[in-house]
Amino acid sequence: MAREIFDKMVGNENKQDRERRQNLCGDQVRRIRQERGLSLFQVHVMLAHSHLKLNPPDLDRIERVQRIVSDIELASLSRVLMVTPDQLV
After folding, report:
1. Within 13 Å and on the Cβ side, how many CA atoms surround 32?
2. What is the pTM of this model?
3. Mean pLDDT for each consecutive 10-residue tract of the chain (89 residues)?
4. 70 lies in which domain range?
């Protein structure tokens, strides 16, 4: 069941890409960050003010779906990007 939901969420990615994917939120984080005109460094600073230490290279890895995102990180990202966690996945 969970695999079916995951497959629907990632859509037309080939099997190899799906197996390398480390999170479901990276694509949305990048899209929303860019829509807001924010750099990775600016998001890093905003997260630091929320007491979450994610450096720009880690944020880049999240956006490229190459890093797992914890629930606390997801909540903090949604807060600084001014969206709900659901909007990131």
Report:
1. 20
2. 0.79
3. 55 58 95 97 96 95 96 97 95
4. 22-88
